[in-house]
Structures are given as C-alpha cells and as structure tokens.
Design brief:
The protein contains 5 helices and 2 strands. By secondary structure, it is mainly α. It has a two-stranded antiparallel ribbon with strand order 1-2.
C-alpha cells in the first residue's frame, strides 16, 4: 500500500527553522481561488496560501511581510511545486478513473 507524503515548507526565524503545517485541501483551495482568476502569476497564487501554511507558528503574517524578496520567492517556488504536483496527481487519478469506467 502506498503512503502519502506530507509536504511542508520551512522558514528560519531568529536562527530557528520553523516547519509549516502539511499542504492540505484548504491550502489547495486558497491557491486555486487565485489561480482561476485571469492574469495571476505563480507568486500571486502562492502568496494567498503562505499565511495559512504557517498559521499557529512563529512565522506570523508580520514575519512574512518583512521577509526578503529572495526568501518569499523560495517559499513560493516550493509551494508552487507542491501545488503543481498535487494538480498532476489529481489529473492522473481522474484519467485512470475515466479509463476504468470506459473498460466497464
């Protein structure tokens, strides 16, 4: 049986590495809400979900607002990769389901 890999982000605050909550359905929805809007790039999509990913940790909204462009780009790139992997996984699953129904 395959096991699901929990995908998280990490960010250093005051010399300590803080790990986000695992990427979940809520994060996916927050990203998708922006992704479906016209003329939205990957950073706009990711910035909508970053506060949620670190909710309840030392990486507060204020920490994210004061983070460097490089740090925010790294976080967004990592989060985009997780999001894209999930979209691909869902598309493959949907394709397999359609094929199995066609075979019935």
């Amino acid at each position: 049986m395959a096991t699901a890999k929990q995908q998280t982000l990490s960010f250093k605050v005051g010399g300590k590495t803080v790990v986000s909550r695992p990427f979940d359905f809520e994060a996916m929805c927050l990203m998708n809400d922006i992704h479906v809007q016209p003329n939205r790039g990957r950073y706009s999509v990711c910035l909508n979900a970053l506060p949620y990913m670190f909710e309840g940790t030392e990486v507060t909204n204020e920490v994210l607002k004061s983070a460097s462009i490089e740090d925010m780009a790294r976080l967004c790139d990592s989060l985009w990769e997780i999001y894209a992997d999930e979209l691909m996984s869902m598309a493959k699953s949907k394709s397999k389901n359609a094929e199995s129904r066609a075979a019935d």
